[in-house]
Design brief:
alpha/beta, disordered N terminus, 14% strand
């Protein structure tokens, strides 16, 4: 089918009228197919879809949003400072995975960074105004009401990681942080280590709390007293891992292992150990968490806990689209896996 041209001789894009003519149906039938296929026979639906492929018709999202009240886009909201997005490889992996999962539905993903209270207030107002159909929320701290405010505004939402607040109705997808931490500490014990220090994540996040809990549980079960001098917290940045390891070496110079609650922090811890003249793994075994690119870039390569970010991304998108379609919030917890490398 040949499309018409404008005065300048350029080929004009196909319209809904062209699709209707090609399919042999009314414009109204094409419109109903584009808006969900309600009250359209299977034969007409197939004819319209074939006509769309033949003509190369592309939906005018703005025009359709005026009819359906939907933006046909989804927000990826990171409630962390901008520099953390560029430093921490996990955020980029999640963003890429969610983008790919949504591409199959021809839905664009909008990146939103809100590291301060003012930024979160502005972004929450923007989202609540209907500029996106739903939100994939990453890195929510306790005391941060973004998730609850969006839920109260009726915005479909899926959070990466368990909500911190009791009785929260927010949908989420999480790796089993506590079980992953248990696997790592059991592995360090199996290597003959008994003075195991920990650099935890921030304790106002679910991952920070659960990974610390797993560490404490395994030591207690092994009959080893939990020594508070062996525990410091970081913020998942490389610098905080380095500072945390330095503090542990000063407080407990006899440590023979370190469980660091992210690979990026573990990179910093390795630098501190090297500077102190401690060999890894001969003097101090080091375990990370995430199985990110930082684990492979570390020297030596890090033993770590694998988080299935591809599945986390896919499940977040699945749950969000289900919510947008009218289903109730749901939760998914995915298993982790110990990955052995040279650092232990």
């Amino acid at each position: 089918m040949t499309m018409g041209s404008n005065a300048g001789g350029r080929r004009r894009p196909p319209t809904i009228h062209d699709v209707a003519r090609e399919a042999g149906v009314s414009r109204g039938t094409v419109s109903r197919v584009l808006n969900g296929g309600h009250y359209v026979s299977p034969a007409a639906q197939e004819a319209v879809n074939d006509a769309i492929r033949r003509t190369g018709y592309v939906v005018n999202r703005h025009a359709r949003s005026l009819i359906t009240g939907r933006s046909d886009s989804v927000g990826f909201l990171l409630t962390e400072p901008q520099e953390r997005f560029f430093e921490d490889p996990n955020f980029n992996v999640l963003l890429s995975g969610c983008t790919q999962a949504l591409a199959g539905y021809d839905i664009p993903l909008l990146l939103m960074l809100a590291g301060t209270k003012d930024e979160r207030r502005r972004i929450t107002r923007y989202i609540s105004a209907g500029h996106v159909d739903g939100v994939l929320l990453v890195s929510s701290h306790s005391g941060d009401r973004v998730a609850e405010e969006l839920r109260e505004a009726g915005v479909p939402l899926v959070q990466c990681g368990k909500p911190m607040g009791p009785g929260s109705k927010v949908s989420y997808v999480a790796a089993d942080d506590r079980d992953g931490a248990r696997d790592m500490v059991q592995h360090l014990l199996s290597r003959g280590r008994r003075r195991i220090g920990m650099v935890s994540g921030p304790l106002d996040t679910p991952g920070g709390v659960d990974r610390l809990a797993g560490y404490q549980e395994v030591l207690t079960e092994a009959g080893i007293e939990v020594d508070e001098r062996l525990i410091v917290s970081g913020d998942y940045s490389r610098a905080s891992g380095e500072a945390g390891a330095e503090r542990l070496l000063a407080q407990a110079p006899d440590i023979d292992a370190l469980f660091v609650a992210s690979d990026l922090m573990a990179q910093g811890a390795l630098a501190a150990l090297h500077r102190a003249g401690r060999r890894v793994p001969e003097d101090v075994s080091v375990g990370g968490f995430d199985d990110s690119v930082a684990a492979m870039e570390a020297t030596p390569a890090l033993t770590t806990i694998h988080q299935p970010y591809d599945r986390i991304s896919a499940e977040m998108v699945r749950l969000l689209l289900a919510q947008i379609g009218g289903e109730d919030p749901a939760a998914v917890i995915l298993p982790t896996e110990l990955v052995r490398r040279e650092s232990t």
